[in-house]
Amino acid sequence: GGKVIVVTGTTDDSGGVTIDPSDTGFRDAAGEEVSLTSVSRILITGDPGVSARFGTGAVILKAVGGRVAATCCIGAGDKNVKVEALDGTSTYTLLMWQAD
């Protein structure tokens, strides 16, 4: 059980994008708002390569060549995820999961 937010896009290496899982702009298949109050796990994939920084800015994940990187047990504090290309621009898919 739980809730999932999936975000896809393009990012660059000069600041990237920050995704806030509590943003009410996310919708489920029925059009209902989905926001996360906590994040239990994140998965990221990117091509040619991205890094995902969680909260305080520590690099926690790097995904290169379409491979998937994942982590769990995020902990307390800022839940925002910053996605940045490793070099130039990159496409990415970020999945954030909140356990029940």
Characterize the main sheet.
4 strands, antiparallel
Sketch the topology as an H/E string, one letter per element.
EEEEEEEE
Unreliable stretches, pLDDT < 50, 5 or more residues?
Answer: none
| Gyration radius, in Å | 13 Å
Helix content: under 10%
- How much of the residues is beta strand, in percent? over 45%
Report the end-to-end length measured between terminal Cα atoms.
6 Å
Tally of extended strands? 8
Average pLDDT value?
A: 88
What structural category arises from helix and sheet content? mainly beta
Shape: globular
Strand order of the largest sheet: 1-8-3-6
Please, how many helices? 0
Describe the structure.
- By secondary structure, the protein is mostly beta strands.
- The protein is built from no helices and eight strands.
- The protein has strands spanning 3-12, 17-19, 41-47, 49-54, 58-64, 68-72, 81-85, 89-98.
- The protein has a four-stranded antiparallel beta sheet, with no helix packed on it. Strands 2-7-4-5 form a four-stranded antiparallel beta sheet, with no helix packed on it.
- Strand 4 (49-54) and strand 5 form a beta hairpin.
- The radius of gyration is 13 Å and the shape is globular.
- The termini are close together.
- The model has no long low-confidence stretch (mean pLDDT 88).
